[in-house]
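Q: Here's a chain of 259 amino acids. Please give me its 3D structure as tokens.
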Amino acid sequence: MKMPPSPPANNTVDGARRRLLAGAAAIATLSLAPGVVLITAAEAKAPTGPASAKVRWGLLVDSAKCGDGCDVCVDACRTENGWTGHGRPRTDPQWIRMVSLREPAGGASWTLPMMCQHCRFPPCVDVCPTGASFRRADGIVLVDKHICIGCRYCMMACPYNARSFVHEDVAEQRPHAPRGKGTVESCTLCVHRIDAGGIPACVEACGRAGGGALTFGDLNDPDSEIARRAAAYAAVRVRADLGLDPAVRYHIPGRAAKR
């Protein structure tokens, strides 16, 4: 759903809007929890370079290598980003979770990790009233916790159930993964690692202790490993019929890709 176009801006309106957003950001920061500030400019590390549209980061999941009962990627994400669950599926974080699929006709089944799909046309960004949900030039979809007002429109818009609302106080936050009660969060593709020249924690852990089911790389580079594998496997996009063009692709044997 696209928001209606904004009327032509003028200096008075722009100034009022900036003051409104600045005030909202301050209120949101103060209301997270007593003494908790998400992150300050001084704590943030400079990236290796600005995000570029020449690159589109993505993941390829090979279901043939994703074993039943394996949740190495989930554990790695939880440790890296400092989120925990309390055994309550309706309110626990949804950064990454394992889902089971079954083919009704033949009975074939797969277990796959599901996370933010980092869509080219993300509906979560379209419906966000403050601009807290945004898409970087390199395709990574993020949430700015400082201006997130917790309206949860993005959660309703996401067809992958990939976002969650922080219902409870948080502790032991990671400086690179700010969290706060009353805000929405989701997989960041470990953007702090990518900006430092690394790979997502789930990919690293899967290669080390899992089945090597995850491939990370630049989908725009036809010579990259992920692009070559995606082409060879005819990788599937989840809910391709929606036309969102997710950056997370899946190799499911016997399933033809829907472009």
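Q: Can you summarize the key feature?
A: Confidence is low (pLDDT under 50) at residues 1-47.
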